[in-house]
Design a protein that fits this description.
Protein name: Pyrroline-5-carboxylate reductase
Number of strands: 8
CATH architecture of the largest domain: 3-Layer(aba) Sandwich
Main location: cytoplasm
Strand content: 5-15%
CATH superfamily of the largest domain: NAD(P)-binding Rossmann-like Domain
Organism: Bradyrhizobium guangzhouense
CATH class of the largest domain: Alpha Beta
Family: Belongs to the pyrroline-5-carboxylate reductase family.
Bound molecules: NADPH dihydro-nicotinamide-adenine-dinucleotide phosphate, (2S)-3,4-dihydro-2H-pyrrole-2-carboxylic acid
Oligomer: single chain
Strand order of the largest sheet: 3-2-1-4-5-6-7-8
Catalytic activity: L-proline + NAD(+) = (S)-1-pyrroline-5-carboxylate + NADH + 2 H(+); L-proline + NADP(+) = (S)-1-pyrroline-5-carboxylate + NADPH + 2 H(+)
Shape: elongated
Distance between the termini: 39 Å
C-alpha cells in the first residue's frame, strides 16, 4: 500500500546488509512507494533478488567517495560484524545522518561510537516480508522529530511500530517479537511431528499443522477477542483440547519453557552488546 511519508522522503537511504531482514525491509519500502533511485545497498554478497532491483534504479555497492554523506543509513548487518562494517560505513555518516539500526543487542551508545549520526535503534521481525511485521523502536536524544518521522515511515512500511523511551526494554523485545516467529514455526514443526507420532502420514500431518498455525494466527489477527478467549472457544468441557491443555499447561508446562526461552534470548541480546 502506498505510504505518503515514504513517498515524500528526500535524500539517499543507504542500506548496509541486504540479507533476510534488510532485504525484507527494502521490499516493504519499494512496495510502499519509496523511489528506488533514493536507495543504495552495500553488501558483499548481493542476492539475485536484490541485484534485480538495479534495473529499477537501486544503486548496488556504490563507490564511497562518489556517494558521499547520506541522509539515512540503515544498518542491517549481523551484530558480530558491526564494528568491522561500521568502519566502512562511517564515511557515509555526517552529524545530520539518521542511523537506523535493526541489529540485535547493539546499543545506541555503540552505534554513536562507531558510526556517529542521530541513532534510532529498532527491532523488526521477519513477517515484515509480507507487511505483517511488528517493530519496536527507540530514538537517541539527538534524533530530530523529522528523523523520527523518516525512521517511523521506513519501519511502518513492514507493519506497525511501537516507540519506547527505555532502551533497556530492547533485549526483551528482541526475545519476544524479534525472535518470536521462530518459536511459532517450531510449534508448526513439532505439531506435525507429534501428528506423525500419533499415526498420521507425514504430508498430511505437515499440512494440518501448517494450516492450523497459519489459520489460528489469522484468527488472532482479525479477532478483537483476547487470545485466552480464542483458546477457551476451542476447549469443550471434558473434551480432547482440555486433555491436551492439561499437558501443555501442567507443571512443568509451556509457561515454564517459554519463560526459560525468553530469558535465554534476552541474555543473549545483552551479550551481543559486548
Ligand atoms: N533475521 C531476523 O529475523 C531478524 C534479524 N534482525 C537483525 O538484522 C540483522 C541482519 O540479520 P539477517 O538479515 O538475519 O542476517 P543476514 O546474514 O541474512 O544478512 C546480513 C547481510 O549483511 C551482509 N554483510 C556482512 N558484512 C557486511 C558489511 N561489512 N557491509 C554490508 N553488508 C554486510 C551479509 O553478507 P554475508 O552473508 O556475506 O556475510 C548479509 O548479506 C542482524 O543484526 C539481526 O540481529 C533483526 C530482527 C529480526
Ligand atoms: O536471532 C537473532 O539474533 C536475530 C535477532 C532477532 C531475530 N533474529
Amino acid at each position: 500500500m502506498a505510504n505518503s511519508t515514504l513517498q515524500n522522503i528526500t535524500g539517499t537511504i543507504l542500506l548496509a546488509g541486504a540479507g533476510k531482514m534488510g532485504g525484507a525491509m527494502l521490499t516493504g519500502w519499494l512496495a510502499g512507494g519509496l523511489d528506488p533511485r533514493r536507495v543504495a545497498v552495500v553488501d558483499p554478497h548481493i542476492s539475485p533478488d536484490i541485484s534485480a532491483l538495479a534495473a529499477r534504479g537501486v544503486a548496488l555497492n556504490p563507490d564511497v567517495m562518489a556517494a558521499g554523506f547520506v541522509e539515512t543509513l540503515v544498518v542491517a548487518v549481523k551484530p558480530q560484524m558491526f564494528r568491522e562494517a561500521g568502519a566502512t560505513l562511517k564515511p557515509f555518516v555526517s552529524d545530520k545522518t539518521l542511523v537506523l539500526s535493526i541489529m540485535a543487542g547493539t546499543t545506541i551508545a555503540a552505534l554513536e561510537e562507531v558510526c556517529g549520526g542521530a541513532v534510532v535503534r529498532a527491532m523488526p521481525n521477519t513477517p515484515a516480508a509480507i507487511g505483517r511485521g511488528i517493530t519496536v523502536a527507540v530514538a537517541a536524544k539527538n534524533a530530530s522529530a523529522a528523523q523520527r518521522t523518516v525512521a517511523d515511515a521506513l519501519l511502518r512500511a513492514t507493519g506497525p511500530v511501537e516507540w519506547v523511551e527505555n532502551e533497556g526494554l530492547m533485549d526483551a523485545v528482541t526475545a519476544v517479537s524479534g525472535s518470536g516467529p521462530a518459536y511459532v514455526f517450531l510449534l508448526a514443526e513439532e505439531l506435525a511431528r507429534a501428528g506423525v507420532e500419533a499415526g498420521l502420514p507425514e504430508a498430511l500431518a505437515t499440512k494440518l499443522a501448517r494450516e492450523t498455525v497459519a489459520g489460528s494466527g489469522e484468527l488472532l489477527h482479525q479477532s478483537d477477542l483476547p487470545s485466552a478467549t480464542l483458546r477457551q472457544n476451542v476447549t469443550s468441557p471434558g473434551g480432547t483440547t482440555a486433555a491436551a491443555l492439561g499437558v501443555l499447561m501442567g507443571e512443568p508446562g509451556l509457561r515454564d519453557l517459554m519463560i526459560r526461552a525468553i530469558a535465554a534470548a534476552t541474555k543473549r541480546s545483552k551479550e551481543l552488546a559486548k
